[in-house]
Amino acid sequence: MESILTGSQSSRASLRDVHSINPTQLMARIESYEGREKKGISDVRRTFCLFVTFDLLFVTLLWIIELNVNGGIENTLEKEVVQYDYYSSYFDIFLLAVFRFKVLILAYAVCKLRHWWAIALTTAVTSAFLLAKVILSKLFSQGAFGYVLPIISFILAWIETWFLDFKVLPQEAEEENRLLFVQDASERAALIPAGLSDGQFYSPPESEAGSEEEAEEKRDSEKALLEL
Questions:
Q1: Exposure class string for 114-142: b at 16+ Cβ within 10 A, else e
Q2: Which residue has the higher pLDDT, 66 or 107?
Q3: Taking the CA atoms of the chain, what radius of gyration do you get in angstroms?
Q4: I need a labelling partner for 160 at 20 to 30 A (CA). Which of 6, 35, 194, 224 fits?
Q5: How confident is the model at residue 13 (pLDDT cuts 50, 70, 90)?
Q6: What is the DSSP secondary structure assignment for residue 82, as one 8-state letter?
């Protein structure tokens, strides 16, 4: 009997908790989450795409400065692009930034990918290429840009990886879980009538132990008195 009473009390408490949720607040939250979905891309993902664009523009700016420093844009551009030399040209580092930009924007802005394989590919290719170029090339003999461009490209690639893996994907997963929770709570609240009260969950009082035996003994005593 005690277990039945405890179960009925817990059920009443859970129903009160669900019904106590304000439907207006639930609908407002659902509309806000749906509005974010309609935008097509989350705020944190948009920030990531802006940083990828900054990566490309920053490396391009550094490369253009390097072209001007080493004898003018036209002459140096012809030397590094037309007469490309792996051991002394910075043109491949610029192409590496273009490669990262195209792959990441296509994967996470156009296709809205929710996996880390694209960023893992770009970071692995960037790291391997830059390590090989630093070891085999003669960039260090060409001044400060021989250090700056490879190091900046390496750092930017790993910042993009960290930002996506620790900010973009976890935050979007958390927002999706919140939306599912709010929708589930709204559905549970809609199933409960508005006028629900505790009186509708009436449990009969527990019968007194031995009441039937006492009544029978009383009847037997009355019969004995009548016989006397």
A1: eeeebbeebbeebeebbeebeeebebeeb
A2: 107
A3: 37
A4: 35
A5: very low
A6: I
Q: Which of 175, 165, 223, 224 is nearest to 33 (CA)?
A: 175
Identify which of 164, 183, 162, 158 has the alpha carbon closest to the alpha carbon of residue 112. Answer: 164
Query: What was the pLDDT predicted at 5?
Result: 42
> How many Å apart are CA 174 and CA 112, to the nearest integer?
16
Cβ atoms 104, 119 nearer than 8 A: yes
CB distance 33 to 178 below 8 Å: yes
Tell me: pLDDT of 111 over 90: yes
Structure tokens at 155: 């750092």
CA distances from residue 103 to 97, 148, 216, 224 in whole angstroms, order as listed: 10, 24, 90, 102
Contact 119, 164 (CB under 8 A): yes
Which residue in this structure is represented by tokens 């664009």? 53
- The reported pLDDT for the residue numbered 72 is 80
